[in-house]
Amino acid sequence: MLNKNVEKVLLNQIEKEAYSSNFYLAMAVWAETSGFQGIADWLYAQAEEERVHMLKFIKYVNERGGKAIVPAVDQPPAGYDNVLSVFEKVLEHEIYVSELINNIVGVCIQEKDFTTNNWIQWFVTEQIEEEASVRSVCDKLKLIGDHNLYMFDRDIMAMRNPGAGASAAN
Ligand code: FEO
């Protein structure tokens, strides 16, 4: 049976992953309607990964004797200034998600729920990879400036880790 405090932070994370998915979806729409199809594809793929993360939390809570709640999700911003600011927002958001995941680890340890602590380690590793991947996109964008965005847009999908998120399907 899931510890109540652990269940509470896991339910909270379902909403955070759902919001992450919609946040990246809103960015994908902005990119697609601004002529950046490659960047849009990257963001659509990222939105899918976040949905997989959300499902992983839902299924885990249910499997452990809890009951997942499908949350209401806030509307993400629709307008963005430019490509770099989009990815800086992605990075900022991923850093925030990493803090949330670390907090879940803290609650698991506090409640001596070593099973969930073991399970959540996949997300600890995933966050390290996600932060690193988005940081490298931001670094490249700063390097090229406003020029060569055409080439960047064409090549960005090749920067995705092809296996990313695949093992999360559960
Ligand atoms: Fe679900 Fe990007 O963390």
Structure description:
This protein is mainly α. It has a single domain (4-70, 79-168), classed as Ferritin, core subunit, four-helix bundle (Ferritin, Up-down Bundle). It contains five helices and no strands. The chain has helices at 4-33, 37-63, 83-110, 114-144, 149-155. Helix 1 (4-33) runs antiparallel to helix 3 (83-110) and helix 3 runs antiparallel to helix 4 (114-144). The longest helix has 31 residues, at 114-144. Residues 165-170 have low confidence and may be disordered. The structure holds MU-OXO-diiron (FEO). MU-OXO-diiron is lined by residues 17, 20, 50, 53, 94, 97, 130.
Biggest β-sheet: count, sense, barrel? Answer: none
Bound molecules: MU-OXO-diiron
CATH superfamily grouping: Ferritin, core subunit, four-helix bundle
Number of helices: 5
Structural class: mainly alpha
Percent of residues in beta strands? under 5%
How many beta strands in the DSSP annotation? 0
What letter string, H or E per element, gives the SSE order? HHHHH
The top level CATH class name:
Mainly Alpha
Mean pLDDT, all residues: 93
What would CATH call the architecture?
A: Up-down Bundle
**What is the 3D form?**
elongated
**Low confidence ranges:** 165-170
What is the CATH T-level topology? Ferritin
Helical content (DSSP H or I, runs of 4+)? over 70%
Specify Rg, calculated over alpha carbons.
17 Å
Counted up, domains total 1
Q: How far apart, in Å, are the first and last alpha carbons?
A: 20 Å
